[in-house]
Write a structure and sequence with these properties.
Helix content: 25-40%
Strand order of the largest sheet: 2-1-11-10-12-13-14-15-16
Strand content: 15-25%
Largest sheet: 9 strands, mixed
Radius of gyration: 23 Å
Structural class: alpha/beta
Protein backbone atom coordinates (compact mmCIF):
# COMPACT_ATOMS: atom_id res chain seq x y z
CA UNK A 1 0.00 0.00 0.00
CA UNK A 2 2.82 2.38 -0.83
CA UNK A 3 2.17 5.89 -2.06
CA UNK A 4 1.91 6.17 -5.83
CA UNK A 5 4.91 8.46 -6.36
CA UNK A 6 3.88 9.29 -9.92
CA UNK A 7 0.54 10.79 -9.01
CA UNK A 8 -2.15 10.38 -6.39
CA UNK A 9 -1.84 8.35 -3.21
CA UNK A 10 -4.74 6.13 -4.20
CA UNK A 11 -3.41 5.40 -7.67
CA UNK A 12 -5.85 3.06 -9.43
CA UNK A 13 -9.22 3.02 -7.66
CA UNK A 14 -10.11 -0.31 -9.22
CA UNK A 15 -6.86 -1.92 -8.01
CA UNK A 16 -7.36 -0.55 -4.50
CA UNK A 17 -10.89 -1.98 -4.36
CA UNK A 18 -9.67 -5.34 -5.63
CA UNK A 19 -6.74 -5.68 -3.23
CA UNK A 20 -7.95 -3.81 -0.13
CA UNK A 21 -7.63 -5.40 3.33
CA UNK A 22 -7.87 -3.83 6.77
CA UNK A 23 -4.88 -5.94 7.82
CA UNK A 24 -2.75 -4.09 5.28
CA UNK A 25 -3.85 -0.73 6.76
CA UNK A 26 -3.05 -2.02 10.25
CA UNK A 27 0.44 -3.05 9.12
CA UNK A 28 0.97 0.36 7.50
CA UNK A 29 0.18 1.99 10.86
CA UNK A 30 2.70 -0.34 12.52
CA UNK A 31 0.12 -2.15 14.65
CA UNK A 32 2.23 -5.12 15.62
CA UNK A 33 1.89 -7.14 18.80
CA UNK A 34 2.56 -4.95 21.81
CA UNK A 35 1.99 -1.68 19.95
CA UNK A 36 -0.88 0.34 21.46
CA UNK A 37 -3.80 1.10 19.17
CA UNK A 38 -4.18 4.32 21.12
CA UNK A 39 -5.14 7.26 18.88
CA UNK A 40 -3.34 9.80 21.09
CA UNK A 41 -0.12 7.81 20.91
CA UNK A 42 -0.43 7.21 17.16
CA UNK A 43 -0.85 10.93 16.40
CA UNK A 44 2.15 12.05 18.46
CA UNK A 45 4.64 9.48 19.85
CA UNK A 46 4.44 7.22 16.80
CA UNK A 47 5.02 10.16 14.44
CA UNK A 48 8.02 11.28 16.52
CA UNK A 49 9.46 7.77 16.35
CA UNK A 50 9.27 8.04 12.57
CA UNK A 51 11.79 10.88 12.64
CA UNK A 52 9.31 13.78 12.51
CA UNK A 53 9.84 15.18 16.02
CA UNK A 54 10.70 18.68 14.78
CA UNK A 55 8.19 18.81 11.91
CA UNK A 56 5.42 21.37 12.37
CA UNK A 57 2.20 19.61 13.34
CA UNK A 58 -0.01 22.63 14.06
CA UNK A 59 -0.04 26.13 12.64
CA UNK A 60 -2.49 28.07 14.78
CA UNK A 61 -3.66 31.56 13.90
CA UNK A 62 -5.53 33.44 16.62
CA UNK A 63 -8.56 35.65 16.11
CA UNK A 64 -6.17 38.63 16.32
CA UNK A 65 -3.91 37.19 13.62
CA UNK A 66 -1.07 35.96 15.84
CA UNK A 67 0.56 32.79 14.56
CA UNK A 68 1.98 30.00 16.72
CA UNK A 69 3.58 26.79 15.47
CA UNK A 70 3.85 23.52 17.37
CA UNK A 71 6.00 20.55 16.43
CA UNK A 72 4.99 16.92 16.78
CA UNK A 73 7.33 16.64 19.76
CA UNK A 74 5.63 19.58 21.47
CA UNK A 75 2.28 17.93 20.74
CA UNK A 76 3.61 14.77 22.37
CA UNK A 77 4.82 16.59 25.48
CA UNK A 78 1.67 18.73 25.89
CA UNK A 79 -0.71 15.81 25.39
CA UNK A 80 1.31 13.83 27.94
CA UNK A 81 0.93 16.74 30.36
CA UNK A 82 -2.85 16.79 29.97
CA UNK A 83 -3.01 13.02 30.41
CA UNK A 84 -0.94 13.23 33.61
CA UNK A 85 -3.05 16.11 34.96
CA UNK A 86 -6.28 14.17 34.47
CA UNK A 87 -4.73 11.06 35.99
CA UNK A 88 -3.64 13.02 39.07
CA UNK A 89 -7.18 14.39 39.36
CA UNK A 90 -8.47 10.85 39.59
CA UNK A 91 -9.94 10.42 36.11
CA UNK A 92 -10.00 6.75 35.15
CA UNK A 93 -9.96 5.00 31.80
CA UNK A 94 -13.45 4.72 30.33
CA UNK A 95 -14.72 7.84 32.11
CA UNK A 96 -16.01 10.73 30.02
CA UNK A 97 -14.13 14.03 29.80
CA UNK A 98 -15.78 16.91 27.96
CA UNK A 99 -13.88 19.51 25.94
CA UNK A 100 -15.71 22.83 25.81
CA UNK A 101 -13.30 25.19 24.08
CA UNK A 102 -12.93 27.47 21.10
CA UNK A 103 -10.40 26.42 18.45
CA UNK A 104 -7.37 27.04 20.66
CA UNK A 105 -4.25 24.86 20.90
CA UNK A 106 -5.27 23.37 24.27
CA UNK A 107 -8.32 21.83 22.62
CA UNK A 108 -6.07 19.66 20.49
CA UNK A 109 -3.52 18.89 23.20
CA UNK A 110 -6.20 17.95 25.72
CA UNK A 111 -8.08 15.75 23.26
CA UNK A 112 -4.98 13.68 22.56
CA UNK A 113 -4.19 13.58 26.28
CA UNK A 114 -7.65 12.26 27.17
CA UNK A 115 -7.18 9.48 24.62
CA UNK A 116 -3.70 8.66 25.93
CA UNK A 117 -5.21 8.23 29.39
CA UNK A 118 -7.83 5.83 28.03
CA UNK A 119 -10.73 8.10 28.96
CA UNK A 120 -13.49 8.96 26.48
CA UNK A 121 -13.33 12.43 24.93
CA UNK A 122 -16.64 14.28 24.50
CA UNK A 123 -16.20 17.30 22.17
CA UNK A 124 -18.68 20.13 22.67
CA UNK A 125 -19.36 23.12 20.41
CA UNK A 126 -18.08 26.31 22.00
CA UNK A 127 -21.35 27.96 20.94
CA UNK A 128 -23.43 25.59 23.08
CA UNK A 129 -25.44 27.26 25.79
CA UNK A 130 -26.37 26.06 29.24
CA UNK A 131 -29.19 23.71 28.25
CA UNK A 132 -27.34 22.07 25.34
CA UNK A 133 -24.34 21.43 27.57
CA UNK A 134 -26.38 20.09 30.43
CA UNK A 135 -28.31 17.61 28.30
CA UNK A 136 -25.18 16.08 26.79
CA UNK A 137 -22.93 16.06 29.83
CA UNK A 138 -25.70 14.64 31.99
CA UNK A 139 -26.43 11.94 29.44
CA UNK A 140 -22.86 10.65 29.49
CA UNK A 141 -22.10 11.41 33.16
CA UNK A 142 -18.99 13.42 32.28
CA UNK A 143 -16.64 13.53 35.28
CA UNK A 144 -14.47 16.42 34.05
CA UNK A 145 -14.65 19.32 31.62
CA UNK A 146 -11.84 21.33 30.05
CA UNK A 147 -12.94 24.87 29.24
CA UNK A 148 -11.85 28.53 29.08
CA UNK A 149 -12.60 31.57 31.28
CA UNK A 150 -15.20 32.84 28.79
CA UNK A 151 -17.01 29.52 28.45
CA UNK A 152 -16.72 28.64 32.13
CA UNK A 153 -19.42 31.22 32.82
CA UNK A 154 -21.92 29.21 30.77
CA UNK A 155 -20.76 25.91 32.24
CA UNK A 156 -21.37 27.23 35.77
CA UNK A 157 -25.06 27.67 34.98
CA UNK A 158 -25.30 24.05 33.85
CA UNK A 159 -23.44 22.49 36.78
CA UNK A 160 -26.38 22.13 39.19
CA UNK A 161 -27.76 19.51 36.78
CA UNK A 162 -24.44 17.70 36.47
CA UNK A 163 -23.79 15.78 39.70
CA UNK A 164 -21.14 13.56 38.07
CA UNK A 165 -19.02 16.55 36.99
CA UNK A 166 -16.33 16.77 39.67
CA UNK A 167 -13.50 18.58 37.90
CA UNK A 168 -13.48 21.75 35.80
CA UNK A 169 -10.11 22.68 34.26
CA UNK A 170 -9.89 26.24 32.97
CA UNK A 171 -7.10 26.78 30.45
CA UNK A 172 -5.40 30.09 29.72
CA UNK A 173 -6.95 31.86 32.71
CA UNK A 174 -5.28 35.25 33.07
CA UNK A 175 -6.88 35.99 36.44
CA UNK A 176 -7.29 32.95 38.71
CA UNK A 177 -9.19 35.04 41.23
CA UNK A 178 -12.18 35.00 38.84
CA UNK A 179 -12.49 31.22 39.00
CA UNK A 180 -15.30 29.80 41.09
CA UNK A 181 -15.55 26.90 43.53
CA UNK A 182 -13.54 23.86 42.51
CA UNK A 183 -12.47 25.24 39.12
CA UNK A 184 -8.71 24.99 38.60
CA UNK A 185 -6.51 27.02 36.28
CA UNK A 186 -4.07 25.23 34.00
CA UNK A 187 -1.66 26.32 31.30
CA UNK A 188 -0.03 23.46 29.44
CA UNK A 189 2.74 25.70 28.13
CA UNK A 190 3.63 26.86 31.64
CA UNK A 191 3.41 23.38 33.19
CA UNK A 192 6.54 21.17 33.42
CA UNK A 193 6.94 19.07 30.27
CA UNK A 194 6.04 15.42 30.67
CA UNK A 195 8.56 13.38 28.72
CA UNK A 196 7.06 9.98 29.44
CA UNK A 197 3.46 8.98 30.08
CA UNK A 198 2.35 5.33 30.29
CA UNK A 199 -0.19 5.35 27.47
CA UNK A 200 -3.32 3.27 28.02
CA UNK A 201 -2.91 0.02 26.04
CA UNK A 202 -6.01 0.51 23.92
CA UNK A 203 -7.28 -2.22 21.64
CA UNK A 204 -9.22 -1.54 18.48
CA UNK A 205 -12.46 -1.89 20.50
CA UNK A 206 -11.52 0.46 23.36
CA UNK A 207 -13.97 3.43 23.46
CA UNK A 208 -12.38 6.70 22.38
CA UNK A 209 -14.86 9.46 21.45
CA UNK A 210 -18.49 10.29 22.07
CA UNK A 211 -19.98 12.53 19.38
CA UNK A 212 -23.47 13.92 19.92
CA UNK A 213 -25.83 14.22 16.98
CA UNK A 214 -28.78 16.57 16.84
CA UNK A 215 -32.04 14.73 17.44
CA UNK A 216 -35.02 15.18 15.12
CA UNK A 217 -37.24 14.85 18.16
CA UNK A 218 -36.36 14.27 21.77
CA UNK A 219 -32.79 14.33 23.06
CA UNK A 220 -29.50 14.29 21.12
CA UNK A 221 -27.87 10.88 20.71
CA UNK A 222 -24.26 10.15 21.66
CA UNK A 223 -22.51 8.05 18.98
CA UNK A 224 -19.70 6.09 20.64
CA UNK A 225 -16.53 5.42 18.65
CA UNK A 226 -13.45 3.31 19.36
CA UNK A 227 -9.68 3.61 18.97
CA UNK A 228 -9.77 1.27 15.98
CA UNK A 229 -11.46 4.06 14.02
CA UNK A 230 -7.98 5.39 13.27
CA UNK A 231 -7.63 2.71 10.59
CA UNK A 232 -10.44 4.31 8.58
CA UNK A 233 -9.43 7.89 9.34
CA UNK A 234 -5.79 7.29 8.44
CA UNK A 235 -6.36 5.59 5.10
CA UNK A 236 -9.25 7.81 3.96
CA UNK A 237 -7.18 10.92 4.71
CA UNK A 238 -4.28 9.46 2.77
CA UNK A 239 -6.30 8.43 -0.28
CA UNK A 240 -9.14 10.99 -0.37
CA UNK A 241 -7.32 14.11 0.89
CA UNK A 242 -4.22 12.85 -0.95
CA UNK A 243 -1.90 14.27 1.72
CA UNK A 244 1.81 14.28 0.86
CA UNK A 245 4.75 14.99 3.23
CA UNK A 246 5.11 18.65 2.19
CA UNK A 247 1.42 19.55 2.22
CA UNK A 248 -0.17 22.14 4.47
CA UNK A 249 -3.69 20.92 5.16
CA UNK A 250 -6.70 22.92 6.33
CA UNK A 251 -9.97 21.45 7.58
CA UNK A 252 -12.40 24.28 8.33
CA UNK A 253 -14.75 22.14 10.47
CA UNK A 254 -15.26 22.95 14.15
CA UNK A 255 -13.89 20.16 16.41
CA UNK A 256 -17.28 20.10 18.12
CA UNK A 257 -18.40 18.27 14.99
CA UNK A 258 -17.15 14.80 14.01
CA UNK A 259 -15.42 16.16 10.88
CA UNK A 260 -13.27 18.45 13.02
CA UNK A 261 -12.01 15.40 14.93
CA UNK A 262 -11.80 12.66 12.28
CA UNK A 263 -10.26 14.99 9.69
CA UNK A 264 -9.11 17.90 11.83
CA UNK A 265 -7.11 15.77 14.28
CA UNK A 266 -6.86 12.01 13.75
CA UNK A 267 -6.50 11.66 9.99
CA UNK A 268 -3.88 14.33 9.26
CA UNK A 269 -1.77 13.81 12.38
CA UNK A 270 -1.74 10.03 12.04
CA UNK A 271 -0.12 10.74 8.65
CA UNK A 272 2.39 13.16 10.14
CA UNK A 273 0.90 16.07 8.21
CA UNK A 274 1.13 19.79 8.97
CA UNK A 275 -2.26 21.38 9.43
CA UNK A 276 -3.62 24.86 9.85
CA UNK A 277 -6.22 25.91 12.43
CA UNK A 278 -7.90 29.31 12.38
CA UNK A 279 -9.52 30.45 15.60
CA UNK A 280 -11.98 32.65 13.68
CA UNK A 281 -15.04 31.38 11.84
CA UNK A 282 -16.16 32.24 8.33
CA UNK A 283 -14.61 35.51 7.16
CA UNK A 284 -13.77 35.32 3.44
CA UNK A 285 -10.84 37.75 3.58
CA UNK A 286 -9.29 35.91 6.56
CA UNK A 287 -9.78 32.57 4.82
CA UNK A 288 -8.14 33.64 1.59
CA UNK A 289 -5.39 35.44 3.47
CA UNK A 290 -4.65 32.30 5.50
CA UNK A 291 -4.40 30.15 2.37
CA UNK A 292 -1.94 32.64 0.89
CA UNK A 293 0.07 33.22 4.07
CA UNK A 294 0.45 29.58 5.11
CA UNK A 295 0.59 28.12 1.58
CA UNK A 296 -2.32 25.78 2.16
CA UNK A 297 -2.30 23.02 -0.44
CA UNK A 298 -5.20 20.75 0.60
CA UNK A 299 -8.47 22.32 1.74
CA UNK A 300 -11.47 20.51 3.26
CA UNK A 301 -14.55 22.68 3.71
CA UNK A 302 -18.36 22.67 3.62
CA UNK A 303 -20.83 23.32 0.77
CA UNK A 304 -22.44 26.14 2.76
CA UNK A 305 -19.08 27.90 3.06
CA UNK A 306 -18.41 27.33 -0.63
CA UNK A 307 -21.77 28.86 -1.56
CA UNK A 308 -21.07 31.83 0.70
CA UNK A 309 -17.72 32.28 -1.02
CA UNK A 310 -19.56 32.13 -4.34
CA UNK A 311 -21.81 34.93 -3.10
CA UNK A 312 -18.74 37.05 -2.32
CA UNK A 313 -17.79 36.73 -5.97
CA UNK A 314 -14.62 36.37 -7.99
CA UNK A 315 -13.09 39.81 -7.48
CA UNK A 316 -12.02 39.12 -3.88
CA UNK A 317 -10.29 35.92 -5.01
CA UNK A 318 -8.08 37.93 -7.37
CA UNK A 319 -6.66 39.85 -4.42
CA UNK A 320 -4.88 36.75 -3.05
CA UNK A 321 -2.28 34.28 -4.27
CA UNK A 322 -4.02 30.91 -3.98
CA UNK A 323 -1.56 29.09 -6.23
CA UNK A 324 -0.52 26.75 -3.41
CA UNK A 325 -3.88 24.95 -3.56
CA UNK A 326 -3.77 21.59 -5.33
CA UNK A 327 -6.71 19.56 -3.94
CA UNK A 328 -10.14 20.59 -2.59
CA UNK A 329 -12.77 18.49 -0.80
CA UNK A 330 -16.14 19.24 0.80
CA UNK A 331 -18.31 17.68 3.48
CA UNK A 332 -21.44 18.37 5.52
CA UNK A 333 -24.20 18.16 2.94
CA UNK A 334 -24.40 17.36 -0.78
CA UNK A 335 -22.28 19.59 -2.97
CA UNK A 336 -24.34 21.28 -5.64
CA UNK A 337 -23.09 20.95 -9.24
CA UNK A 338 -22.89 24.73 -9.59
CA UNK A 339 -20.37 24.89 -6.72
CA UNK A 340 -18.12 22.31 -8.38
CA UNK A 341 -18.21 24.19 -11.68
CA UNK A 342 -17.66 27.55 -9.95
CA UNK A 343 -14.65 26.34 -7.93
CA UNK A 344 -13.03 24.91 -11.03
CA UNK A 345 -13.52 28.24 -12.78
CA UNK A 346 -12.35 30.46 -9.92
CA UNK A 347 -9.72 28.32 -8.16
CA UNK A 348 -8.77 26.18 -11.14
CA UNK A 349 -9.73 23.11 -9.09
CA UNK A 350 -13.03 21.30 -8.50
CA UNK A 351 -14.25 20.53 -4.99
CA UNK A 352 -14.50 16.77 -4.44
CA UNK A 353 -17.63 15.85 -2.51
CA UNK A 354 -17.30 13.34 0.35
CA UNK A 355 -20.18 11.51 2.00
CA UNK A 356 -20.22 10.13 5.52
CA UNK A 357 -21.97 10.60 8.88
CA UNK A 358 -21.28 10.99 12.57
CA UNK A 359 -22.19 7.33 12.89
CA UNK A 360 -19.81 6.13 10.17
CA UNK A 361 -16.84 7.95 11.71
CA UNK A 362 -15.02 8.33 8.39
CA UNK A 363 -15.58 8.88 4.67
CA UNK A 364 -17.58 6.08 3.07
CA UNK A 365 -18.47 7.33 -0.44
CA UNK A 366 -16.43 9.96 -2.20
CA UNK A 367 -14.91 11.51 -5.29
CA UNK A 368 -11.24 10.57 -5.55
CA UNK A 369 -8.25 12.61 -6.69
CA UNK A 370 -7.39 11.70 -10.24
CA UNK A 371 -10.89 10.36 -10.93
CA UNK A 372 -13.51 12.15 -13.00
CA UNK A 373 -15.69 14.40 -10.85
CA UNK A 374 -19.32 14.25 -11.91
CA UNK A 375 -20.77 17.48 -10.49
CA UNK A 376 -23.50 16.64 -8.00
CA UNK A 377 -22.40 13.05 -7.47
CA UNK A 378 -21.32 11.60 -4.14
CA UNK A 379 -18.72 9.51 -5.95
CA UNK A 380 -17.98 5.82 -5.35
CA UNK A 381 -17.63 3.70 -2.17
CA UNK A 382 -14.28 3.75 -0.43
CA UNK A 383 -12.23 0.54 -0.87
CA UNK A 384 -13.21 -1.96 1.80
CA UNK A 385 -16.72 -0.46 2.00
CA UNK A 386 -19.80 -2.29 0.80
CA UNK A 387 -22.58 0.16 -0.01
CA UNK A 388 -25.96 -0.40 -1.61
CA UNK A 389 -29.29 1.22 -2.35
CA UNK A 390 -32.13 -0.79 -0.82
CA UNK A 391 -35.82 -1.08 -1.56
CA UNK A 392 -38.57 -0.98 1.06
CA UNK A 393 -37.91 -4.66 1.89
CA UNK A 394 -34.27 -3.76 2.62
CA UNK A 395 -33.02 -5.69 -0.41
CA UNK A 396 -30.42 -4.23 -2.82
CA UNK A 397 -31.78 -2.49 -5.92
CA UNK A 398 -29.93 -3.60 -9.05
CA UNK A 399 -31.68 -1.33 -11.54
CA UNK A 400 -29.54 1.76 -12.39
CA UNK A 401 -30.79 5.17 -11.30
CA UNK A 402 -33.64 3.80 -9.20
CA UNK A 403 -33.76 5.66 -5.84
CA UNK A 404 -33.86 3.83 -2.53
CA UNK A 405 -32.43 3.69 0.97
CA UNK A 406 -28.66 4.23 1.14
CA UNK A 407 -27.13 1.48 3.28
CA UNK A 408 -23.73 0.15 4.34
CA UNK A 409 -22.68 -3.39 5.21
CA UNK A 410 -21.19 -3.68 8.73
CA UNK A 411 -18.63 -3.84 10.09
CA UNK A 412 -16.04 -1.23 9.20
CA UNK A 413 -13.26 0.14 11.37
CA UNK A 414 -14.78 3.52 12.23
CA UNK A 415 -18.38 2.38 12.67
CA UNK A 416 -20.04 3.67 15.83
CA UNK A 417 -20.54 0.97 18.44
CA UNK A 418 -23.62 2.32 20.22
CA UNK A 419 -25.78 5.32 21.02
CA UNK A 420 -24.80 6.07 24.59
CA UNK A 421 -27.34 4.50 26.93
CA UNK A 422 -29.84 3.77 24.15
CA UNK A 423 -29.38 0.30 22.71
CA UNK A 424 -32.90 0.19 21.29
CA UNK A 425 -32.40 3.18 18.97
CA UNK A 426 -28.97 1.85 18.00
CA UNK A 427 -30.34 -1.53 16.97
CA UNK A 428 -33.14 0.13 15.01
CA UNK A 429 -30.50 1.50 12.61
CA UNK A 430 -29.70 -2.00 11.36
CA UNK A 431 -32.02 -3.97 9.06
CA UNK A 432 -31.45 -7.22 7.18
CA UNK A 433 -27.70 -7.09 7.79
CA UNK A 434 -27.34 -3.46 6.68
CA UNK A 435 -26.76 -0.15 8.47
CA UNK A 436 -29.58 2.12 7.27
CA UNK A 437 -28.16 5.61 6.89
CA UNK A 438 -31.46 7.48 6.64
CA UNK A 439 -30.35 8.98 3.31
CA UNK A 440 -31.79 8.16 -0.08
CA UNK A 441 -29.61 7.71 -3.15
CA UNK A 442 -29.39 6.14 -6.59
CA UNK A 443 -26.52 4.46 -8.42
CA UNK A 444 -25.91 5.26 -12.07
CA UNK A 445 -24.73 2.87 -14.79
CA UNK A 446 -21.08 3.54 -13.96
CA UNK A 447 -21.36 2.96 -10.21
CA UNK A 448 -21.47 6.62 -9.14
CA UNK A 449 -23.80 7.35 -6.22
CA UNK A 450 -26.17 10.33 -6.32
CA UNK A 451 -27.79 11.80 -3.22
CA UNK A 452 -31.60 12.03 -3.38
CA UNK A 453 -32.30 13.48 0.06
CA UNK A 454 -33.08 12.20 3.51
CA UNK A 455 -35.38 9.21 3.65
CA UNK A 456 -37.97 11.35 5.42
CA UNK A 457 -37.28 14.44 3.26
CA UNK A 458 -38.35 13.05 -0.10
CA UNK A 459 -41.40 14.93 -1.38
CA UNK A 460 -44.26 12.75 -2.62
CA UNK A 461 -46.33 14.91 -4.93
CA UNK A 462 -49.12 13.19 -6.80
CA UNK A 463 -47.39 9.84 -6.43
CA UNK A 464 -44.15 11.18 -7.90
CA UNK A 465 -41.07 11.39 -5.72
CA UNK A 466 -39.17 14.68 -5.83
CA UNK A 467 -35.72 14.95 -4.24
CA UNK A 468 -35.26 18.21 -2.29
CA UNK A 469 -31.59 18.33 -3.26
CA UNK A 470 -32.46 18.39 -6.95
CA UNK A 471 -34.86 21.31 -6.43
CA UNK A 472 -32.32 23.12 -4.27
CA UNK A 473 -29.60 22.68 -6.88
CA UNK A 474 -31.85 24.24 -9.52
CA UNK A 475 -32.81 27.10 -7.21
CA UNK A 476 -29.15 27.89 -6.56
CA UNK A 477 -28.56 28.33 -10.27
CA UNK A 478 -30.98 31.26 -10.35
CA UNK A 479 -29.06 34.53 -10.37
CA UNK A 480 -30.87 35.89 -7.30
CA UNK A 481 -30.61 32.86 -4.98
CA UNK A 482 -27.85 32.57 -2.38
CA UNK A 483 -29.24 29.71 -0.27
CA UNK A 484 -32.15 27.37 -0.69
CA UNK A 485 -34.08 24.56 0.96
CA UNK A 486 -37.02 22.56 -0.32
CA UNK A 487 -39.62 20.68 1.70
CA UNK A 488 -42.95 19.03 1.07
CA UNK A 489 -45.92 20.98 2.36
CA UNK A 490 -49.32 19.26 2.70
CA UNK A 491 -51.72 19.56 -0.22
CA UNK A 492 -55.28 18.25 -0.43
CA UNK A 493 -54.97 17.10 -4.04
CA UNK A 494 -51.37 15.98 -4.45
CA UNK A 495 -50.66 14.92 -0.84
CA UNK A 496 -47.61 17.21 -0.91
CA UNK A 497 -46.29 19.99 -3.09
CA UNK A 498 -42.88 21.61 -3.12
CA UNK A 499 -42.28 24.63 -0.91
CA UNK A 500 -39.00 26.51 -1.17
CA UNK A 501 -37.24 28.65 1.40
CA UNK A 502 -34.87 31.12 -0.23
CA UNK A 503 -32.22 33.57 0.96
CA UNK A 504 -31.38 36.16 -1.68
CA UNK A 505 -28.04 37.50 -2.83
CA UNK A 506 -27.12 41.09 -2.05
CA UNK A 507 -28.85 43.50 -4.41
CA UNK A 508 -32.06 41.49 -4.78
CA UNK A 509 -35.30 42.18 -2.94
CA UNK A 510 -38.24 39.78 -2.50
CA UNK A 511 -41.04 40.68 -4.90
CA UNK A 512 -43.91 38.83 -6.53
CA UNK A 513 -42.17 39.11 -9.89
CA UNK A 514 -38.99 37.57 -8.50
CA UNK A 515 -41.01 34.77 -6.89
CA UNK A 516 -42.59 33.92 -10.26
CA UNK A 517 -39.22 34.16 -11.97
CA UNK A 518 -37.71 31.61 -9.56
CA UNK A 519 -40.68 29.26 -9.85
CA UNK A 520 -40.56 29.29 -13.66
CA UNK A 521 -36.79 28.87 -13.63
CA UNK A 522 -37.13 25.61 -11.66
CA UNK A 523 -40.07 24.50 -13.79
CA UNK A 524 -37.97 24.88 -16.90
CA UNK A 525 -34.91 23.23 -15.42
CA UNK A 526 -36.69 20.24 -13.84
CA UNK A 527 -40.43 19.70 -14.30
CA UNK A 528 -43.82 21.16 -13.31
CA UNK A 529 -43.98 18.65 -10.45
CA UNK A 530 -40.65 19.87 -9.07
CA UNK A 531 -41.56 23.54 -9.36
CA UNK A 532 -42.11 25.17 -5.94
CA UNK A 533 -45.77 26.05 -5.45
CA UNK A 534 -44.79 28.36 -2.60
CA UNK A 535 -41.66 30.40 -1.94
CA UNK A 536 -40.86 31.95 1.41
CA UNK A 537 -38.02 34.46 1.51
CA UNK A 538 -35.75 34.48 4.57
CA UNK A 539 -32.67 36.47 5.56
CA UNK A 540 -30.85 33.18 6.14
CA UNK A 541 -31.74 29.53 6.49
CA UNK A 542 -31.39 27.51 9.71
CA UNK A 543 -28.17 25.51 9.57
CA UNK A 544 -26.10 23.35 11.88
CA UNK A 545 -22.54 24.46 12.57
CA UNK A 546 -21.32 21.80 10.16
CA UNK A 547 -23.21 23.59 7.40
CA UNK A 548 -26.23 21.35 6.98
CA UNK A 549 -29.48 23.14 6.27
CA UNK A 550 -32.01 21.83 8.79
CA UNK A 551 -35.01 21.01 6.64
CA UNK A 552 -36.77 19.47 9.61
CA UNK A 553 -36.84 22.89 11.32
CA UNK A 554 -38.39 24.44 8.23
CA UNK A 555 -40.86 21.58 7.95
CA UNK A 556 -41.87 21.95 11.58
CA UNK A 557 -42.31 25.72 11.14
CA UNK A 558 -44.41 25.13 8.04
CA UNK A 559 -46.70 22.65 9.78
CA UNK A 560 -46.84 24.36 13.17
CA UNK A 561 -45.15 21.41 14.88
CA UNK A 562 -42.54 21.32 17.68
CA UNK A 563 -39.12 22.12 16.27
CA UNK A 564 -37.25 19.62 18.49
CA UNK A 565 -33.56 19.85 19.39
CA UNK A 566 -31.97 22.98 17.86
CA UNK A 567 -28.85 23.09 20.03
CA UNK A 568 -26.59 22.59 17.01
CA UNK A 569 -28.12 25.48 15.08
CA UNK A 570 -25.56 27.98 13.83
CA UNK A 571 -26.70 30.87 16.02
CA UNK A 572 -27.97 29.10 19.10
Amino acid sequence: MNTDKSGTNIGSYEERVKNFTWDAVSQELGFEDGVPRNIGWCCTDRVCEQGLREKTALIWESAQGEVHRYTFNEMRLYSNAFAKLLQELGVKDGERVAIYLDRVPSLYFSLLGILKLGAIAVPMFSAFGEEALQVRLANCDAVACITSPRLARKLRKARPGLPALKRVIVVDADDESKLKGDEMAYSVEDAPPVEVFPVFPATEETPSLLHYTSGTTGQPKGALHVHGSILSQYITTKWVMDLKPDDVYWCTADPGWVTGISYGVIGPWSLGATQLVLEVGFIPARWYSAIEKHRVSVWYSAPTAIRLLMREGEEIVKQYDLSSLRHLCSVGEPLNPEAVIWSEKVYGLPFHDTWWQTETGAIMITNYPGMEVRPGSMGKPFPGTTAAVLDDRFEPITEPNKPGKLALKPPWASMFREYWGNRTIYESKFKNGWYITGDRARIDEDGYYWFEGRDDDVINTGGHLVAPFEVESALLEHEAVAESAAIGTPDKVNMEVVKAYVALKSGFEPTKDLELSIMNFVRKRLSPLAMPQYIEFMDKLPKTRSGKIMRRVLRAMDRGEPIGDISTLEDE
